[in-house]
Amino acid sequence: QVQLVESGGGLVQPGGSLRLSCAASGFTLDNYAIGWFRQAPGKEREGVSCISVSESSTYYADSVKGRFTISRDNAKNTVYLQMNSLRPEDTAVYYCTADGGRYSTVQAMCTSGAHEFDYWGQGTQVTVSS
């Protein structure tokens, strides 16, 4: 089967940290740009962070810049999102995506609003609450 599977979500207190993982099966991520998106109840899906195939470019939403870090390990066919200094407003379902060439920049991938990608994961819940 061809899929992306997110893991690592959970309940944390404000100021805490989580690392999300996105593992690909049935295909390899080497030639795909990767994006992390999130959706909170009552809000539209937004791009959190995206990374290019070559890792030469990254993008972070203003709301997470300086707190989140995106990375990829092609040998493990896995993508990560390290989330530090978590806030209640970070509460959402987080999705990873992979796309093989629609977007010319990672900023476009994260912010265009098209939300068209080759693959979507099922999502993992992150809840930040005291």
Structure description:
The chain has 130 residues and is mostly beta strands. The chain has one helix at residues 106-111; strands at 3-7, 10-12, 18-25, 33-39, 46-51, 58-60, 68-73, 78-83, 92-99, 119-120, 124-128. A hairpin with a 6-residue loop joins strand 4 (33-39) and strand 5 (46-51). The longest helix has 6 residues, at 106-111.
Properties at a glance:
four-stranded antiparallel beta sheet; seven-stranded mixed beta sheet; mainly beta; 1 helix; 130 residues
The strand count comes to 11
Mean pLDDT: 95
Q: Total helix count?
A: 1
For the largest beta-sheet, the strand count, sense and barrel status come to: 7 strands, mixed
Strand fraction:
over 45%
Give the radius of gyration: 14 Å
Structural class: mainly beta
Distance between the first and last residues' Cα:
39 Å
The helical percent reads: under 10%
Secondary-structure element series: EEEEEEEEEHEE
Q: Could you list the spans in which at least 5 consecutive residues all have pLDDT below 50?
A: none
The best one-word shape is: globular
Topology readout:
Layout: E1 3-7, E2 10-12, E3 18-25, E4 33-39, E5 46-51, E6 58-60, E7 68-73, E8 78-83, E9 92-99, H1 106-111, E10 119-120, E11 124-128
